[in-house]
Amino acid sequence: MEHRLLGGSGFKVPVLSLGTGTFGGSGDFFKAWGSTDVAGATRLVDVCLEAGLTLFDSADVYSGGAAEEILGQAIQGRRDQVLISTKAGFRTDPGPNGTGSSRFHLTQSVEASLRRLGTDYIDLFQLHSFDALTPLEETLQTLDDLVRAGKIRYIGCSNYSGWHLMKALAISERYGLSRFVAHQAYYSLIGRDYEWELMPLGIDQKVGAVVWSPLGWGRLTGKIRRGQPVPEGSRLQSKTVVDSGPPVDDEYLYRVVDVLDTVAEETGKTVPQIALNWLLARPTVATLIIGARNEEQLRQNLGAVGWNLTTEQIARLDAASVTTKAYPYWHQGGFDRNPSPV
Hints:
Elements: E1 3-5, E2 12-14, E3 16-19, H1 27-33, H2 38-51, E4 55-57, H3 66-74, E5 83-88, H4 103-117, E6 122-127, H5 136-148, E7 152-158, H6 162-175, E8 180-186, H7 198-205, E9 208-212, H8 239-244, H9 250-267, H10 271-280, E10 285-290, H11 295-302, H12 311-321, H13 329-332
Helix pairs in contact: 2-3, 2-11, 3-4, 9-12
């Protein structure tokens, strides 16, 4: 398993990490993802460690905290062999301070995650979303305090816009606070908006991409085809899940899948393996969070590493998935002093 430095830090992470959104299965939303129990999770951790995948990503809202609890039990007795990343910021209780990135909520959230995970430190802690109501100075000072207390080792954010992230980095630099080394962001072969602003920012400021939903919210599993119904068991059968994820035009999706099918025939690899491998060749990408309901899915996704697409195959996938950029990015692209990072 290849390892890469996470942003501008000295911390190395495997290029694939396992997401725990399938652990627990509480509520309609997470039940559609999966309902892996402790025994199933323990087996997935076994397979991951055998393959050199040591990073496991969770969040306090996944199945109401059950995902963290199950992960904690699955890694019991081998904490020194694994890396844990988790997130907080979304609502976890109905009270007025039960959400956001305030000192109150973040401190409470970290303590709760540590208890559920059965550990005394978190390797990578990320803010799940931007909180426009809490001053960034308060948030970043809180995270810095938690780092200094040894409860967090590295910090990141998730789902930030470019100006959110740049403002946070500037505040950290001004006051000498721990800075974000990771941005957990949506990026896939059918969702390339990340390239417009966040990728150039990541290159310039040395912020590594921790990619969530690299298979386009389940659309690049190789089971979605033109003129065919969504297969049984797919999370895309849940309207709640579909409405919560990134929108994708059907014809655009099928155009990309057509090229993926062709490249799959050429390489002898599967559609998801090709989609994941394409991402690993992109600038700033440190790790891809893969999901798996069972061992078979996990092993298939692990097959995305250890080989490379050809330059010509990458070019074909690029061409099939390109979309018109929003302003001002399309305008900037017409100036030869603004080269594209990809």
